[in-house]
Design goal:
Chain A: It is found in: Nucleus, Nucleolus. Chain A: This is RNA 3'-terminal phosphate cyclase-like protein-like. Chain A: One of its GO terms (cellular component) is nucleolus. The complex is a heterodimer of chains A (421) and B (1243). By secondary structure, chain A is of the alpha+beta class. Chain A is built from nine helices and 20 strands. Chain A has a four-stranded mixed β-sheet, with helices on one face. The two termini of chain A are 30 Å apart. Chain B contains 36 helices and 39 strands. In chain B, α7 links the parallel β5 and β6. Chain B is extended. The chains are: A alpha+beta (421), B alpha+beta (1243).
């Protein structure tokens, strides 16, 4: 009785594959992980991720070859419970947390995870070999010439409400930043607790509503507390053109809560009348890497990023697209609908690098080619295909770019780990 | 039944009774009378007791809430699959008879052997699939899982049999479908009273098993081997109006009850290795829920398999089209039973049989026996074998049929609108001619007069071949060509052809179907065209071998084909080979016999025979043609591919294609790689930049735009202005419009104080304003607005109205309702091809599943009497894990308790498998303690190594599935509560040690452990002695190894034994052995036996355990107990009182002679004196005695006297007392009276 499995190549979308494999019970084999690279095989942060997966599951079989270029992963059952994990500082906690968000509702016991590492992070291309390989095609922001990895602050304000709309709510759902840790040192701590559900509700999120307020957090650790205020001022200067209801908290952590490295940043979130959240985030360059940033610039850029996000629109911001789509897939056998902005490359696999002309901006797709994609993975693992409809915006309506309406029939997934009492 | 005539009831026409009734009748509809009664007699409705009122209210509410179920989204398909009716009962109870009677009742057709599922159309909205359930427990278990309705046949003359109860228990475990009991053999009762009593007894027993009031049907007797028509009709009515409950397992898993099976294995591989794994396609209605294409299925009795491909086919037994009339006409009463040989065509695993003795069109009832005349095809057999096997030569030359006869079926076949008819004709004209010849030949051979029949059968076959031309089915899907029922399948088949023209098999599941969608219309037309052509030319082969077709194909088609080719499908090649073989075969056979080959070439062959010589040539040289055709095809490939590519690039961007990719992309990429090869041997290892980047890119979900907008420009800023609440709102949500609407709605009001009446602004004004604003399509706008307004008004009204007594439950129900509507509506308008990709195959579709890798026994030992079920498996249900099945309980009817580690056969989910359970029970502290045996009457847990199954699934266990055993076979039942990969069962382990040195409370213990390390692990553990002295392990000692120092609460003895009680984890034996009962040889399907229990093994091998000698019973030998005499010291003896002193006296023995005293002899005088004295004393004695008697009598007299006096005295006293009381009573009365009088007087 051999179970089914899938084989992939390359380390891209590593998390997706392991997460989907764990949920669907199909084994996954990833070959040629950075096989042509100078430092072949799995990186430390990926190894750390695998360790985390091992901690939250029971009976998982992981086989890695000598060089680390081949990984075989046979998932066990999701167990949950108390988990403490030391996340590798190469990637921020958000990297690990995103996977946990996807898995947490389907555990045997409610998850209570303490993750330690870098809470807010912004990657310098020169540090990570993975990033250097993809210098011009990864999430490289032209506004501020830096790369963003969304962090815990963003997840806290966007993913948690999103989960609530899927029926994962209640007392247990919480994401708390106990300590902040900036790269490269890290030293932050995040507490994530999530209740367990047997099934997930289908959703119909087709009307994003209008943005009624903007909130944010300007944080600074091991630098002058004044910096946060400077960020707030500059961000407000831009956002005030649209809406007066803006409040940006300043969060200055001291002493033990401030982690090991200095840094500052801003996370903004726009809330709509229908309870949808769009977010943007920016952090300062890590200590000793890149040129020092002015807090004013950072504030401006972050505000512009938020505007960009608003332009894209949709009921879910670009970071949470895959989470929302996954929950839709794992719902009961009912139709779910979700209005999105342009699908992010992470959400799409777009194979033909030789066809850049297809990827004009009107296409709702990033022109960045060569992204393997979440939807494809969902199809591989769950045989679920989304109906994708483009909602064109009329010219005179000043409501941002075109939107995509994603529709799917849930897979009828039920939490098999949860004990029946 | 009772013949006694009774007086009929006379209804009163006049008089008070009639009046009363009349008035009551009149009053009934309105609610006023109640009101009236309340008003008239308010006290009757008044609250008597607040407490009781509260109680009754609570009671009512309780009852109300009890009725609530958790509302579920209604996911029943619009066109549901046929209802599965399982007919079950002991042997010889009449199962087949009742199926036959029901089929006859619904379709007016007689069926011979009930073989496999039989599907019929029973009404305008219902189809039924009858399955007969044999007496094998495997079959019973499988069918219980798929049944919607169970007809439980009970032999009334015998009573209930064990199988019935077993089946009921199986049903209860796997969800309880509807059950209807049917009592048969009622005619065997001669006595009416016993009949009645038996009925009642059986009914009540049935009720206790099912539910109170469960329907039990009585079939009173047989008429000509059939049940009475009226009773069968009633039963049929019950079945066709019955509602079914959704069962959890069934609604959450897709499943197919296969009604047809074909072996697709390549004949060549078969020839080389007859025992090779088979590729099999199974057909059936999809039930349960949506089925995704590449899934896993479990075939109970065979095992788990991955589905290679699923495709949907036109419904072979469709519901009638929507129409107004009441009943079905004869044409719509369809019957579909491919395994049962209905309609003259029997599908076997590798052949199609045509039954030539079938009913004629004109006389459909005349078909008493079904006789298989001819085996038409044996794909797997060689030519010789085929020649030998075929009994009938089809084309040996005979009289042609009259055209009139042929026309008859054509006319009857009016089934669908014009198009279909047209097509049918086209196909038919060709067929007719063939049929002509065929039929006549056959007629000759068989000497049969029913030619029309034959012809039809053949036509069916031919046509079928045509459809199979699309390479899909090697074994054709010939359909019975007879009667009017046949119409439906035929029409459907046309559709099938259309579908297959673009072979769905070869398309990767999620091909760029947007293109397909666009093209689908074209394709349809095209294929139609092709077909017509084919029909004309005799080759309706929509495959790729004929030249014309390639020519005809427009680019789209070609593209598809290219893709197929590029996919490198070997099947195609295989097929071509087949074709070739077949062709040859048939060529040679033409004169002699016609084994109607099921694959496409035969059709070509037949057509050849029928008509054209040119065509014949073509066929003869088909191989050549084919190869050239294929080549030519390949020539165009590259060019066409590039064209298609270009077209795609130019085409409007299609999101779905971008997301899910297209086939071409995937195919192109490997070819690129190939280009790097040098000389076909070496590969240039060139770091492919783009690819590696793609593959090893950073894993990040952040989406940062490449070309962000310049947010400093005003116009860019303006582009999102309306995304904020400060921006402009839509017309419908704008505050101003909403206000205006409110005005309209609530604008009219009357000021009560002033009496002034305010009117809202008339709507016209607004309209006119709007007209000013928007000139064009104002009408349209207005209309829309009005509709919108109406809708909103209604919504508001609804919400307000409902809010009054809307409960949480109502809200939930409404939500579910909305979801159900959305589910139905969302994909409604998409055509099936695309829809299947989005939501999977819908339940109700007739699908074909191709499953590779089936063991050859499945095909070789195929027996249609045993159901083949394809149960879809959920996300991770294909994996094996340890799963504790808690709440297992031995069945109370099972005779014996179950032993841990004895293999048990479980039915869980779809599966039947043997596994080794460990039984355990939970202690009060949450520890799972291993049990050696299941408790007799309690629940216990069990842990097995088995497949992952969702919690809440029921299961049952049997010890063996082979044969019949005495007693109740279901050993245990339970439910899955938890899944886990690790086990927490422990068993008790006692470690024993002996003290070798004892100080006060400290002792040195040895013999418990072997090394210091072991001891170290147990430091601090508590120990105790057998006598109950508790202690603790302190520290390991160096020598002897394994010894340790322990302290106790008291000093222990050297003879004490020290115990350490511990718990030792137990591992679960990893046995998962699927019951492969379907693979058993025919006739031995119920003889599967798996792993034997230890007990069975010993019994079978005649082994016995060597018993412990000490535990054997031996005869008890008791030694005689000897007690020493009690010795009392002399001193003590002296001090004792006499009573306690040991008595020395011994028993008097014979006095020795010397001690005996001499006898005294009296003197004569002395003797006289003595005699006198004796006489005197005698006299004296007498006198005294007499005196005493007298005295006594006197005394008695005296006593009597005294008593009498006493009586007298008492009497007197009584009199006196009586008198006194009377006087006292009178006095009292007087006083009372006087007091009463006195008081009244006083007043």
């Amino acid at each position: 009785m051999a179970s089914q499995g899938l084989t992939y190549e390359g380390c891209n979308f590593f998390r997706q594959r392991l997460v989907l494999s764990t949920l669907s019970g199909k084994w996954v084999k990833i070959k040629n992980i950075r096989s042509k690279d100078d430092s072949p095989g799995l990186q430390d942060f990926e190894a750390s991720f695998i360790r985390l997966m091992d901690k939250i599951t029971n009976g998982t079989r992981i086989e890695i070859n000598q060089t680390g270029t081949v990984l075989y992963y046979q998932p066990g059952l999701l167990f949950g419970g108390q988990v403490e994990h030391e996340c590798n500082p190469q990637r921020s906690i958000g990297y690990y947390l995103e996977a946990l968000l996807m898995l947490a509702p389907f555990m045997k016991k409610p998850l209570r995870a303490v993750l330690r590492g870098v809470t807010n992070d912004q990657k310098d291309p020169s540090v990570s070999p993975a990033a250097s390989a993809s210098e011009n095609n990864s999430s490289h922001c032209c506004i501020c010439n830096t790369i963003h990895v969304h962090t815990v602050d963003t997840l806290k304000v966007t993913s948690i409400p999103l989960m609530k709309s899927f029926g994962i709510d209640g007392e247990g759902l919480e994401l708390k930043i106990m300590k902040r840790g900036m790269p490269p040192g890290g030293g932050g701590e995040v507490l994530f607790t999530c209740p367990v559900r047997r099934t997930i509700r289908p959703v119909q999120l087709t009307d994003p509503g209008k943005i009624k307020r903007i909130r944010g957090t300007a944080y600074s650790v091991r630098v002058s507390p004044q910096i946060a205020n400077r960020i707030v001022d500059s961000a407000r200067s831009i956002l005030n053109k649209f809406i007066p209801d803006i409040y940006i908290y300043t969060d200055h952590m001291k002493g033990g809560n401030a982690g090991k490295s200095p840094g500052f940043g801003l996370a903004l979130v726009a809330e709509s009348t229908n309870g949808m959240f769009l977010s943007a985030e920016l952090a300062s360059n890590p200590q000793g890497q890149g040129s020092p940033m002015l807090p004013e610039d950072l504030g401006c850029n972050c505000a512009k990023l938020l505007l960009e996000e608003v332009y894209r629109g949709g009921c879910v911001d670009s970071t949470n697209q895959s989470l929302a789509l996954l929950y839709m897939t794992l719902g009961q056998q009912d139709v779910s609908k979700l209005l999105l902005g342009p699908l992010s490359p992470y959400t799409i696999w777009f194979l033909l690098s030789s066809r850049p002309n297809l990827a004009d901006p009107g296409l709702l797709l990033s022109p960045l080619p060569s992204r393997r994609e979440f939807l494809r993975h969902i199809r591989d693992f769950f045989q679920i295909m989304f109906k994708i409809e483009v909602q064109k915006q009329e010219d005179e309506s000043r409501r941002g770019g075109d939107k995509v309406l994603m529709t799917c029939m849930g897979a009828g997934y039920a939490n098999i780990s949860k004990t029946l009492k | 039944m009772e013949a006694k005539e009774q007086k009929r009831h006379q209804r009163k026409q006049s008089g008070p009774k009639a009046e009363r009734k009349k008035s009551r009748k009149q009053r009934a509809p309105g609610a006023e009378p109640d009101e009236d009664e309340r008003r008239r007699n308010p006290r009757a409705f008044a609250v008597q007791s607040a407490v009781r009122m509260a109680k009754t209210f609570h009671r009512a509410q309780d009852l109300k809430t009890k009725k609530h179920h958790i509302p579920l989204v209604d996911r029943t398909p619009l066109e549901p699959p046929p209802v599965v009716v399982v007919v079950v009962g002991p042997p010889r109870v009449g199962k087949s008879t009742i199926i036959r009677c029901l089929i006859k009742n619904f379709t007016r057709q007689k069926l011979g052997d009930i073989c496999g599922p039989v599907t019929i159309v029973s009404g305008k909205k219902r189809r039924l699939t009858f399955i007969e359930c044999g007496n094998d427990i495997n079959t019973m278990i499988d069918l219980a899982k798929v049944a919607d309705l169970v007809l439980m046949l009970i032999d009334a003359s015998f009573g209930f049999e064990m199988e019935t109860f077993e089946f009921l228990n199986i049903l209860q475990v796997h969800g309880f479908p509807r059950i209807m009991g049917v009592l048969t053999h009622l005619d065997s009762f001669k006595n009416n009273k016993t009949l009645r009593k038996t009925k009642k007894r059986l009914k009540h027993r049935f009720w206790t098993e099912v539910y109170q009031g469960a329907k039990l049907f009585y079939l009173s007797g047989m008429v000509h081997g059939e049940y009475q028509a009226q009773e069968v009709k009633n039963l049929g009515r019950f079945i066709s109006v019955m509602k079914f409950r959704p069962l959890v397992w069934q609604t959450s898993h897709p499943y197919v009850v296969a009604d047809r099976m074909e072996d697709l294995t390549d004949p060549e591989t078969l020839r080389v290795d007859p025992k090779c794994d088979r590729t099999v396609s199974l057909y059936g209605y999809l039930r349960g829920t949506y089925l995704k294409n590449k899934g896993q299925v479990h075939i109970p009795g065979v095992g788990d398999f991955a589905v290679a491909d699923v495709s949907f086919l036109p419904d072979p037994c469709p519901l009638p089209e929507e129409q107004k009339k009441r009943a079905l006409n004869q044409k719509e009463r369809l019957l579909y039973a491919p395994m049962a040989g209905v309609g003259g065509v029997v599908y076997d695993k590798d052949a199609v049989y045509i039954d030539l003795v079938s009913s004629h069109v004109d006389q459909p009832q005349m078909r008493p026996t079904a006789e298989l005349v001819q085996s038409l095809i044996g794909t797997h057999a060689t030519l010789d074998a085929k020649l030998a096997a075929s009994k009938v030569s089809l084309f040996s030359g005979a009289a042609a049929m009259t055209p009139g006869e042929q026309q008859a079926p054509l006319e009857n076949r009016v089934w669908d609108p014009v198009t279909q008819r047209e097509r049918r004709k086209a196909v038919f004209s060709d067929d007719e001619e063939e049929g002509d010849g065929d039929e006549s030949y056959e007629g000759d051979e068989e000497g049969q007069s029913e030619q029309g029949d034959d012809e039809e059968g053949l036509q069916g076959g031919d046509e079928e071949e045509k459809s199979s031309g699309a390479r899909e089915s090697k074994v054709g899907e010939a359909r019975r060509g007879q009667d009017e029922e046949e119409k439906a399948p035929r029409v459907k088949r046309q559709r099938l052809e259309r579908v297959e023209a673009k072979p769905p098999v070869e398309m990767p599941a999620f091909a760029d179907s947007e293109d397909d969608l666009e093209m689908s219309g074209d394709d349809g037309e095209q294929s139609e065209e092709d077909e017509r052509e084919g029909a004309e030319g005799g080759t309706a082969d929509s495959g790729h071998c004929s030249e014309e077709e390639v020519d005809d194909d427009d680019e789209d088609e070609a593209e598809d084909d290219n893709e197929e080719k590029q996919d490198g499908k070997e099947e195609e090649d295989d097929e071509e080979d087949d074709d070739y073989d077949d062709d040859e075969d048939s060529d040679m056979e033409t004169e002699v016999t016609a084994p109607v080959n099921i694959s496409k070439p035969v059709k070509a062959k037949v057509s050849v025979l029928s008509e054209e010589a040119e065509e014949d040539d073509g066929d003869a040289g088909e191989l050549g043609n084919e190869s050239t055709g294929a080549l030519r095809w390949k020539e165009g490939l590259a060019q066409k591919a590039s064209e298609a590519f270009l077209r795609q690039q130019q085409a409007a961007p299609n999101l779905r294609k971008l997301v899910y990719g297209s086939v071409i992309e995937e195919q192109n990429s490997p070819s690129d790689e190939d280009a790097d090869e040098i000389g076909g041997l070496f590969r240039v290892s060139r770091p492919e930049k783009s690819r590696s980047r793609r593959v090893d890119a950073m894993d990040c979900s952040r989406f940062v735009p490449d070309s962000p907008h310049d947010w400093d420009q005003e116009e860019v800023l303006n582009s999102i202005r309306d995304c904020f609440v400060t921006g402009k709102w839509e017309e419908s949500k704008d505050a101003a419009t909403l206000l205006k609407e409110d005005e309209e709605l609530y604008g009219d009001f009357e000021d009560l104080e002033t009496g002034e009446v305010h009117h809202g602004k008339p709507a016209k004004e607004e309209d006119s304003e709007e007209e000013v604003m928007v000139k064009e399509d104002a009408e349209e706008e207005q209309k829309k607005k009005r509709l919108e307004k109406k809708r909103r008004l209604k919504e508001r009204f609804d919400s307000e109205y409902d809010d009054g007594d809307a409960t949480y439950f109502d809200d939930l129900k409404e939500e579910m309702q909305k979801q159900a509507e959305l589910n139905r509506a969302e994909f409604e308008n998409i055509d099936d091809e695309a829809r299947v990709q989005y939501e999977g195959f819908r339940p109700g579709m007739y699908i074909r599943m191709e499953i590779p890798g089936l063991p050859c026994e499945f095909v070789n030992n195929f027996d249609p009497h045993y159901p083949i079920i394809l149960g879809g498996l959920g996300a991770s249900e294909g994996n094996v894990a340890v799963s504790p099945l808690q709440g297992l309980k031995k069945h109370r009817w099972h005779q014996r308790i179950l032993k841990t580690r004895d293999p048990l056969i479980l039915s869980l989910g779809w599966r039947r498998f043997q596994s080794i359970p460990l039984y355990h029970i939970e202690d009060h502290n949450g520890r799972h303690r291993l049990l050696k045996y299941t408790p007799q009457h309690m629940h216990c847990g069990a842990t097995i190594w088995g497949p992952i199954t969702p919690q809440g699934t029921g299961f049952l266990a049997v010890q063996s599935v082979s044969g019949t055993q005495a007693g109740f076979r279901i050993a245990a039942t339970g439910v899955i509560l938890d899944l886990d990969k690790s086990v927490t069962i422990v068993k008790k382990l006692k470690l024993i040690g002996y003290p070798y040195k004892i100080f006060k409370n400290t002792a040195f213990i040895k013999g418990m452990f072997n090394t210091m390390l072991e001891v170290a692990k147990f430091e601090g553990a508590s120990v105790r002695t057998v006598s109950g002295i508790r202690g603790q392990i302190k520290k390991a000692l160096r020598t002897p190894s394994g010894a340790y120092r322990a302290t106790f609460e008291d000093r222990i003895l050297m003879s004490d034994i020290v115990l350490l009680r511990s718990w030792c984890p137990v591992s679960v034996p990893q046995l998962y052995n699927p019951v492969t009962s379907l693979l058993q040889p025919v006739g031995q399907k119920d003889s599967w036996s798996g792993m034997r229990t230890l007990g069975q093994l010993k019994r079978d091998l005649g082994l016995r355990n060597k018993p412990n000698q000490d535990s054997l019973y031996k005869p008890v030998v008791r030694t005689k107990r000897h007690f020493n005499p009690l010795h009392i010291p002399k001193q003590l003896q002296k001090a004792l009182p006499f009573k306690s002193k040991p008595k020395q006296d011994q028993k008097k023995g014979k006095t020795p002679r010397h001690l005996q005293r001499p006898a005294v002899i009296r003197e004569p005088h002395e003797r006289k004196v003595a005699a006198l004295l004796t006489a005197l004393s005698t006299v004296h004695n007498y006198k005294t005695k007499k005196a005493k008697a007298e005295q006594h009598a006197k005394h008695k007299e005296f006593l009597k006297q005294k008593e009498r006096e006493e009586m007298e005295k008492l009497k007197r006293q009584k009199e006196a007392r009586k008198k006194m009381y009377r006087i006292m009573g009178q006095k009292e009365k007087k006083r009372e009276r006087s007091s009463l009088k006195g008081s009244s007087k006083d007043d």
